[in-house]
């Protein structure tokens, strides 16, 4: 059993920064296709085809690529879609719909084990953790601890992704406060990397964003990156800058990179023309900010 926190070099750029691509979205991605005008029901094959194309076109510009078992893992591994210099990261979470949303509950996915992920060349696994103020923090911690132990036993990095949700009983939530509460609760586990929500969705002045990111950083005893869900694509580059200046190591993001090409007539070409330059520039921002520390 490996107990020390692992080095992040396996999923990092030469600068030491993290510029990672997420294509592990599931029913949310199907909903994005529908919103873009695709005839419903959108078939699973359409989701898989998009994910494979994104992995092929974009992995050369990412230090790691996060994939899901449900729609992409098997095909991506079989076809070798992720380039050698980009680390394969596997989602260890099973999503359960409910209450009108695609992800109402999350459990550890028994269909993909750390042992299998390791044997297929993965360097890390990721677990989404839904944080609600009225649910048992001990239960959340227990799931995270189990996930980390199982990853480390197979030599894999363990990435946790706490995402805040309104309480089960009552709809009100102070999102910014909840983000800090989640970080305070789960930021001192033995996980290797914390994937956190960007304060204010990146939509605030630089001083406000920097202060909020510093508050988030103060709650964490592990390296961290930001995700892009809830952040407009044009705000995400500055969000990455502010987060790194506050102590983050980079990003693990999907929507800010590729969401705008969903529904395109030629998605492969649009991934190359729009998403690849966007991801390349985000990687450059990571390098610039890491070097400027």
UniProtKB/TrEMBL annotation:
<dbReference type="InterPro" id="IPR013785">
    <property type="entry name" value="Aldolase_TIM"/>
</dbReference>
<dbReference type="Pfam" id="PF01791">
    <property type="entry name" value="DeoC"/>
</dbReference>
<comment type="similarity">
    <text>Belongs to the aldolase LacD family.</text>
</comment>
<dbReference type="InterPro" id="IPR050552">
    <property type="entry name" value="LacD_aldolase"/>
</dbReference>
<protein>
    <recommendedName>
        <fullName>Aldolase</fullName>
    </recommendedName>
</protein>
<keyword id="KW-0456">Lyase</keyword>
<dbReference type="InterPro" id="IPR002915">
    <property type="entry name" value="DeoC/FbaB/LacD_aldolase"/>
</dbReference>
